[in-house]
Design a protein that fits this description.
alpha+beta, about 30% helix, about 25% strand
Length: about 220
Amino acid sequence: MPEHAAFEPPLTFVPWNEEAAEAALAAGEGRPLRGSAAHGSPAHRWMLSRGFRQVNRYRTLRLPREPIPVAGHGCSMEWHERTADAPDDVLQAWLDFQDARGRRLHVVEKETVEGLRARCSSWYSPFAVARRDGGTVAGVALLDDVLCGDDLEVDGGPVDPADPEGDTLVAALLSLCYAKLPGCTFYMELGDEDGERVRAFVESVATAVDFDNVICERPGPRS
């Protein structure tokens, strides 16, 4: 991924009643605009009718209470109780996971393992890790603070979103989460950048869709 030497200001977010949205559109003339709305909502249709292009769709999918069966993943699995205590290659895999999905584009400088370890020193958020033969971290998942309750977000999957075993890897990571935290309810937020195999697998086991939002953008005249 390229280095990001300078911070790029975020695009304008368009508010969601039509009068205010039209005013924001007029005020933002000459610069790129971005809006977020529920999929299929009037706000979504409004953006598409005003020259916006859908660039991503994010859904929060709730997973079943019982463990998800997984077989034949061929990986060794690890569990690291605290984020900052994970090995360097696990933290690097987490940074690579985010970079591959464009989640850290607007940063002053590219974060290092040392910077991440310092930033998350107070987190009690475990890592689930899948290693292939030879020790390469193929999949990684970070859970939100497990001390806050039993309704936990699992953010992770294959390090490479194009991994042909992405569905198997995410199943193995989730299986480890169920084993380590029995009785918890898990959910995942997935976007278009997470890869077709991962999205299809999580959709197949999910019990509900909590949120279904789209991101739409309209370029400025010089974009």
